[in-house]
Amino acid sequence: MYYPNGAFIPKWVKDEQITVAQTLYKGKIVEKGGKQCVLLGDGIQTWCAVENLEVV
């Protein structure tokens, strides 16, 4: 899932190298399901928990 109780991450998103489009919203850290999130770019435009990401 992108974050707890959120939508499941599709396989094609997991297989791609996606950029982070945004780390703050209105100057504040975003939390969803109790997890810190960042906004995924590259046309996805969905918040994803930082713990689900891997730096490449």
Description:
The protein is mainly beta and 56 residues long. It has one domain (11-52). Helix content is 9%, strand content 34%. The chain is built from one helix and five strands; from the N terminus they run αβββββ. The protein has one helix at 11-15, and strands at residues 20-22, 24-25, 28-32, 35-40, 47-49. Strands 1, 2, 3, 4 and 5 form a five-stranded antiparallel β-sheet that branches. The longest helix has 5 residues, at 11-15.
**What is the string of helix and strand elements?**
HEEEEE
| C-alpha end-to-end distance | 20 Å
The largest sheet is:
5 strands, antiparallel
Shape: globular
Catalogue the unreliable spans: none
Strand content: 25-35%
Q: DSSP helix count?
A: 1
Features of the shown structure:
34% strand, mainly beta, 56 residues, 9% helix, globular, 1 helix
In short:
With 56 residues, the protein is mainly beta. It has one helix and five strands, in the order H-E-E-E-E-E.
How would the blueprint of this fold be written?
Elements: H1 11-15, E1 20-22, E2 24-25, E3 28-32, E4 35-40, E5 47-49
Antiparallel strand pairs: 1-4, 2-3, 3-4, 4-5
